[in-house]
Amino acid sequence: MLLLRESHCGLSRSSEYHFVIEGNRLVHISQYAVSKRKVFRDMIEYVIDLSKLRGKEVVEVISSNSGIFCWLDMYPAEDLALEFNQRRVERKPLSFINNYELAHLTYSEKMFLQGDWREYYIPMVESLRGLITKLKSLNQEFPYVVLTNLMQCQIESGVNYPLSFLIPYSESVRRKSLEVLTKEIHQLWIIARMLVELAEHNRLKSLNLSFTQSSYSAIATFRCKDSDCSMWYEFDMNPHTMCEGMLWYSRSSEALREFYSHVEAVLRRKGLGRAPLRPDIVVLEGGARCNELVNGFRVRMIVECKNWDYTYWAKDVDSQVIPYKEIFQPDVMVLASLKKVPEYVREYLGRYEIVVVDEVYPGGRGMDELLRLIMQL
Fold this sequence. Notes:
There is one protein chain. This protein has 377 residues and is an alpha+beta fold. The protein has two domains: 2-102, no CATH class; 109-375, Restriction Endonuclease (3-Layer(aba) Sandwich). 34% of the residues lie in helices and 24% in strands. It contains nine helices and 17 strands. It has helices at 107-138, 149-157, 171-200, 254-270, 290-293, 310-313, 316-328, 343-350, 366-375, and strands at 2-7, 15-22, 25-28, 33-40, 43-48, 57-64, 67-68, 71-76, 90-93, 101-102, 204-207, 220-223, 228-233, 281-285, 298-306, 332-337, 354-357. Strand 16, helix 8 (343-350) and strand 17 form a beta-alpha-beta unit. The longest helix has 32 residues, at 107-138. The protein starts with a strand and ends with a helix.
């Protein structure tokens, strides 16, 4: 018998998952365990009868505190009894899993793969790969793109699955990871399409392609019709996190005091306990760096992205979308939805002068409409 331990921390912290190749399927090692127990918090210990794995091969998926590795290790199952440096390891690209089914997926997850993932997200990832290459070519001085580890690996690895589905031990954990991943794919595809459109019309001035939250600088600057503008990804006005907390130390700024007083007034009027202060995509007049924001800012446009069915984010309409409009007072407020939005929701948001653009995906009619709006600024 073999004692095998796995750390179960999703894909964003140090973890390892062992899969056994069974024909055209990858089966998690837990299916071969005689028994299992939790050693502590996220560590699971399996008792494995190695005789059941004779002649089979193991595929190991690994992540660290920096995120998932964009490769995997394959070795004979009997080598599980050896120290890692003694195993007959063959390193494979992560796309190796495209050859197999993931046996731990539920029926609904398989339907998602055959439906939304194939129809919307694979084309978005493929399009995004090309858009990023084009944007890097426009940024000769600093031709680099900073993405989250999960997003970078999804784009670069060529894996046909959402990487979230490599988490074998919990459907709910896979779901939470998938929500983050698909939202990020949709957001980045939209902003990349906007930037390329601006570049093709010779309006793009500079790029700083760091797609991280609470960034110190805008993603890009470009020419609006009557001024210079800046575009921000995950624009964060939470004072303790924006610009690594810089604004928290700038509360003496009269402009910021006025902004947060306005936020409190909106919260009281709307009966909200928490202020939504991080729209997905924001265009400012000027304001290319955080130190400019302490003097106040004008929001030219907000694009809030929704990539699931309306029923999934219906609660956000009154607690997030409309408050964004009232807190930031943008010249143009857009809700960009991958899926169709019910007409009554469109009409309701229209009362607050919020434009609903749906079918925003590769080949969908919505992206052209969204591009027209950004070009009108």
